[in-house]
Automatic annotation (TrEMBL):
This is SET domain-containing protein. Residues 5-141 form the SET domain. It comes from the Eukaryota. PROSITE patterns: SET. Gene3D superfamilies: SET domain. It comes from Linnemannia elongata AG-77. Pfam families: SET (PF00856). InterPro entries: SET_dom, SET_dom_sf, SET_domain_protein.
Amino acid sequence: MSARQECYVVKDAPGKGMGMFATRDIKRGECILAEKPLVFASRDLIKTQLAINAMTELDKKSFFALHNIHFDVPTAIGIVRTNALPLGSDGVDCAVYKVMSRVNHTCAPNVHHTWNPKMKKEYLHAIEDIASGSEILTSYLEPFLVREDRMEFLRKNFKFECHCNLCAAPKPEYELYDSTVRRINIYSDLIMTSASFSPKKSIQFVREVLVLLDKIGGEGKTPFYYDGYQISAMYGDYTLAQEWANLLLDSYIMDEGKEGEKYERYLKYSKNPRSHERAGCAPRQILS
Ligand SMILES: [Zn+2]
């Protein structure tokens, strides 16, 4: 039986070292790669060094071939700091990968990467259609940062100037993007603060964010669908909760696939919107 044909190749990316490129057209939602780490790392440098020492010779070869931008620390630690991806959102533990660590940055990524603790693998899913030959690019940043904050973070942590389409856009274009991002952040804060006393307003803020997201490419909707679902379920508007739960499930499958950590939970919400742990905990209100 022949191995599954990969849809990517790792090769020279002019001006950026190595990079990952599509070898065929890739559809939005497709899983491009699921990869086990070469090594796990943490802030405990001794533990990290011991884990590096314990790698197989083959894995060490892949590890030491990775890029290093930190010359003020031992090479192995520099490689970890340059290439590690966080395991989940707490940012304490991380891992280094043979292929995943080669994916370059853009502020407008065409893939979403996520750690799956159940499978103990990092997954890479296409969040838009990617044409054959295009570079596969992820984001090293938290979402919804303005240009200045993105640049400062990348300079400080990755020591490069970003020249992606978003950063290199003409001033009126990036100013429009930045003002949209600022509004998303304001509405995003208001969603949860208003949920306890004005759930109708809270749902309205979710809708506002979704409209704004469409103006900047339409990515990143999943957490907001979750907010819409959770608030509707809390207040017992199960017709609305059903609508949000369906959107949540579809969006999540596109981001992280059916193997994603939260798939079973979101499937359960979609099958029964009353199954949220806080469903009906607030006085019933029709929010639609
Ligand atoms: Zn950029």
